[in-house]
## 1
Amino acid sequence: MIILEAMAANHALLRRLAQRELASGGGLVRRPAGATTVDVAYLRTNPGDGLPIVVIPGGPGLASALPYRGLRRDATAQGLDLVMMEHRGVGLSRFDVDGAPLSVADVTISAAVDDLAAVLDDSGIDRAIVFGSSYGTYVAQLFGIRHPERVAAMVLDSPILSVVTDLALTRDYRRQLLVDGPGATPTAVRALIESGAVSSIELNHVVTSVYEMAGPEVLRRLVTARTKGRAKLVWRQIVRLGETEVDDANPYVMEPDLVAGISYSELGYAHDPDGLPLDPVEPFAAHSAEEFIGEPVSLPAELPRFTWPTAVIAGERDVRTPPPIAAQIAGLIPDASLIELTGIGHSALDSHRRAALAIMHALRENRHATLPQQAADLSALPRRGSLQTASLLIRAGINVETRLPVPTRRG
């Protein structure tokens, strides 16, 4: 009973904090949701201060109000008019007007796109720059297809292109880079696999997180230590971090349950696991048996019709939506520029906020064509973002545990 009361109190506190963010700027738009209605929340920083920028986070299931307080604070200081919608089924948009959670059937990508158009209507915004990160790039691209007249420019950060072809490319890319290829890190990963010391899903979580956040050398040290029976504590902590992205509800931060139809039925997050190491769908397939029905649209067929300037961001260490996918998208959009940021993994919005904000400024000033030449300078900006804190903690934990001596048994 004490635990349940503490959880309820924490939930109430997070809700108050999220509502406080909403009260600082934004509004609610009443939207249909099956047999009921939902008030979709949105937040806004500097109304009327130049061309607005709509930011759509990843997930699906990632909230906007609480996780991106720092982004909005920085945007306010820089004079950016930032608009962020709380995705239906998540956080402040999770419950219908009667206080009941929305149904999974009423939380779709198409509904989210329609919600976004309604948010712009409510805000009095005719046209905006649309910035999508990870899953948010799918929403951004679909918004562009359905409402092209409302897009002034677009940023696609760690983007999605096509469920089936992205999956095949990502599998090949991850395995060649981290398991099958030459070099010290793949060799160490293979040795850990052959030792049988960890499960395949554990390996998936840890290799993905550590490679993206800390790089190949830190990953090599960790898997080598784990093969020798060390670094168990930090290993478990990183596994837990990966698990929270798949099946844990963290109220007002990450809530994957009501967006399950998007994750599995529309975007195939658990589609057709192949049973080989580092399969990106493996952690999701272990959690859900929902069938992939199909995407709402064929993006490869539609992107050549985009007429607005587009910046496509690829993180050098991104193994979730790896750089070749970003390159394909940039090749399909007539007026696209590919910005390759070194030393970061998935989502510049979350791992390199200053670079993301600089790219927003460039789009507002119609300088997107110069961004590829500025990639090194953008990469070198001081790192800020929610994943940067996690990266520092992971590095610190691995540094401690991989330097400890192997314990000896007495007696």
## 2
Amino acid sequence: MLAMMLSDWERMWRRKKTLVSLLIFALIIGLDCLFLSMQKLGAFDNVSTVPLVSENFALFLLKEVSFFLVLIIGPMLIIDSMNGEYTSGQLRMVLIRPVSFAKLFLAKWMNLAGMLLLFTAVTFAVGEAFGYAFLPGADTVVFLNPEQQYGPIGAFFYCLKSYGLFYLILLAQLSLTSLICTLLPGVVLSYLGWIAVAAGSLYVSDSFGFLLMGMSTIFKLTAGLYHHPFYLPLLVCLGFGFAVTMGLWQRRGWTK
């Protein structure tokens, strides 16, 4: 299993899309840092804003880059790994060997989860470093709920919790996008399928709004102002997508 993961990890990094995505993401983070530092205010929505300080900068940096991770970079990497290799024929060259299709999917899923964790961790590290280097500090910080005040340590863990919740949303996206890639032929159709599922979830139930409006959900959830189920729908998306996709990979003739 470890050898399979290492082989897939190497193929992932040999693809130009992975390196280009990393470079573009680094550029986006840099530009957003400059934009936020000049703006001086962090906006939770169109109404609620707070002064930007070193203790909350990482949270609002995540808000700025979350759009690219959820709708552009994340789906592109997932689809390229899950669907692009099959479409280009690279996956057939791997699967002619005596390997388990389900284990290969698991290796890909875990590698992509690691890749998404890398993007999330880099954002957090840059946000914390930039905030403490270039923004003023504060003795207490208020987030969306004005009744809750946090000191520097409390604000750090508040931001860390928000990043953890966002990463869980990315994992749910990974499972659902993997399923869509398996059901739909072609990279373009898979991407359009993910956009349709994310947007359509808003019409199914407000509880699935985190797929498209993740940061808005996280802001309200961490402030105690979110009035819909969150963890159960998230685990359903994560577990259902993962289990069904693994079953499909195990049963389909990928080498034909």
